[in-house]
Amino acid sequence: MNKRGFTLIELLLALAISSVMLVVLAASMLMGYRSEEKASKRQEEAQTLRIVSERLTHLLRGTYPFRRVVENKPTLYFSGDNESLSFVTSSVSSNSTGIVDAPGLKGIRLFYKGDKLLMQEYLFFSDSLLEPEDDEGVVMLENVKDLKFSYLDTSESEKGQWVDEWLPDEKTLPSAVKIEITIETEDKELRVPPLIIKIEPRERVT
After folding, report:
1. What are the sequence ranges of the domains in the chain?
2. How many CB atoms lie within 10 A of CB 57?
3. Please, which residues have CB within 8 angstroms of residue 181's CB and are 6 or more apart in sequence?
4. What is the CB-side half-sphere exposure of residue 49 using CA atoms within 13 A?
5. Distance between CA atoms of 42 and 36, rounded to whole angstroms?
6. What gap in Å lies between CA 67 and CA 33, rounded to an integer?
7. pTM for this one?
8. 6 HSE (CA, 13 A, CB side)
């Protein structure tokens, strides 16, 4: 029986194969890590969107048809266009000690600026709710590529139609508000399913 050691070529081949296997293993581990990182990022984004959606729904479901006489004309404190929305809500924080929440009603302004959805809070009777003095607010959502508010008008038909604007001189609240959001992730744009929030009641201004 012949006994011989490994030749130089065999050693080099063994080292080359081992190196390739190590590279493949490292690449597989890196891909697994990146996949896990992406999955974690997507889960975080989904969680953020869920929280924001729940917050918006909570605020808008509490929409209250507050009105004041302005220049001898009843004015509904609800005003909106494609990029901003101002309204009075009864959805206040019961644990808050802030003056804005104290009356049981507060004014909310939601608006799209830059790549953010922002929110301002006012005393519910404040003129600044309909005529804001600045565009500084609390960030609700970042990395917003596009955002659009629209309003369901059922004054002429039961089915109604979506309109791009709702003015304070309207006699009723819209039946619903639709919020369409597109966010920008690291690798693509994500169009979020439209959030449609029904508003009750549709009370007339008298």
Report:
1. 63-198
2. 17
3. 49, 117, 141, 144, 146, 147, 191, 192, 195
4. 21
5. 10
6. 56
7. 0.75
8. 8
113, 116, 117, 119: CA torsion to nearest 10: -80
Question: Helices (H) and strands (E) in the chain — how many of each?
Answer: 1, 12
Tens digits of per-residue pLDDT, 54-78? 999 999 999 999 988 877 888 899 9
DSSP symbol at 129 = G
Helix (H, G, I), strand (E, B) or coil at 74: strand
**Distance, CA of 10 to CA of 12 (rounded, Å):** 5
Query: Dihedrals φ, ψ of 184, to 5°?
Result: -105, 115
Query: Which tokens is 155 given?
Result: 């004054």
CB-CB contact of 198 with 58 (8 Å): no
Strands in 33-175 per DSSP E: 67-70, 73-76, 78-80, 84-89, 106-113, 116-123, 138-141, 144-153, 161-163
| Cis peptide bond prior to 103, omega within 30° of 0 | no
**Tokens 């953020």 label which residue?**
48
User: For residues 45 and 183, is the Cβ–Cβ distance under 8 A?
Assistant: yes
Digit-coded pLDDT (tens) for 151-168: 999 988 888 899 999 998
Report the SS3 class of residue 190. Answer: strand
